[in-house]
Amino acid sequence: MVTLERPFRLATEEDAPQLAELVNYAGEGLPLHVWAGLAGPGEDPWEIGRARQARKAQEGEIIVVDHGTGAVAGLTGYAIGTEPAPIGDDTPALFHPLQELENLALGSWYINVLACYPAARGQGIGSRLLRHAEEIAASEGLGRLSVIVASDNVGARRLYERHGFEEVARKACVKDRWDTATDQWLLLMKPLSRAGARTGDVSAQDVALRDGALR
Which of 25, 129, 130, 196 is 20 to 30 Å from 157 by CA-CA measure? Predict the structure, then answer.
């Protein structure tokens, strides 16, 4: 993990409520849809999301921005390995296109979640988190960044394209009872000249948004 200075810090369990909301922002509402499917009778889907984000915070996987009143933005990512992850019969259909796109980004540091509360946008926070993502990728010897965005998320696309990301592939969104206006998922990538790509022993992990939603 890179060195963090205020207002950046590692998330803690106490950030779980904000983290769940930020994950849902980044996932275009898909995480909440998944949590609702996992919830039992009378169980709050948000509580499932908060519990999962608390566990990820315990593992030191999340960077947040905190100006003293709690987390207002967050970054989560991971290194994608050198072998494509299989798409088994137990993989929900709506995750198939996401995993297919992730399998095209082998050897990259994948931005799983980069989200900011609406009230905190327009302050350069997303750009600063992207710089941290580049630092993390370089520290792990990875030569590129990758991210998957919804085709209709114009704001996110502009942010990434402004920072050198380019579209390399797209897949139709499989909605599978998910009520969404998203029609396509786009894979964007950015080469990092200062980071040497490596062949390593990092295994491919969960699919893009599923990682935030299901862990």
Answer: 196
Omega before 7 within 30 of 0, i.e. cis = yes
How does 120-155 read in b/e, with b if 16+ C-beta sit within 10 Å?
eeeeebbeebbebbbbbbbeebbbbbbbbbbbeeee
Distance CA 64, CA 84 (A): 29
Could you tell me the pTM of the whole model? Answer: 0.86
Asked if 11 and 64 touch (Cβ cutoff 8 Å), the reply is: yes
Q: Are 45 and 38 in contact (CB under 8 A)?
A: yes
Q: Is the pLDDT of residue 196 over 50?
A: no
Listed residue (127, 55, 71) closest to 63, CA to CA: 71
Q: Cα separation of 146 and 150, whole Å?
A: 14
The CA-atom distances, in angstroms, between 126 and each of 44, 163, 191 are 30, 10, 18
